[in-house]
Amino acid sequence: MKVYLGCLAPHVGPPRPDQMCLVWREVAREQDPLRVIEYTCECEDTVHELCREAGLAYICRITRLDGVVQSVHETYRWRFKEAQDVWIALLKGEAR
After folding, report:
1. pTM more than 0.85
2. Is residue 42 part of a domain?
3. Full residue range of the structural domain in which residue 51 is found
4. Is 49 contained in some domain?
5. What does the pLDDT profile of the chain (96 residues) look like in tens digits?
6. What's the total number of domains in the chain?
7. Cβ neighbours for 47, distance < 8 A, ≥ 6 positions apart
8. Considering only CA atoms, which of 25, 30, 22, 37 is closest in space to residue 81?
């Protein structure tokens, strides 16, 4: 996981050849996650958030163009420990 000079949050690592492919579901309506636990740097057009809601956790992917949200996708819900493991894999480039 990398943190660049001047950035306060980590960036998603470069993809690895043996990366896990995550299933991203499009969010049908705008919703605010109950609690954002961690997030990636906003200097990129795609931001990821590790969210926790009702005892479960998931990763949200927000894609922007010129600062305007273009799409919001999220993974399935897992127990928090499982979601945290996937989050770490995402930051290391082991998941996409």
Report:
1. yes
2. yes
3. 25-92
4. yes
5. 555 567 888 889 888 888 899 999 998 666 666 799 999 999 899 999 999 988 899 999 999 999 899 999 999 999 999 999 999 999 999 998
6. 1
7. 39, 40, 41, 61, 62, 64
8. 37
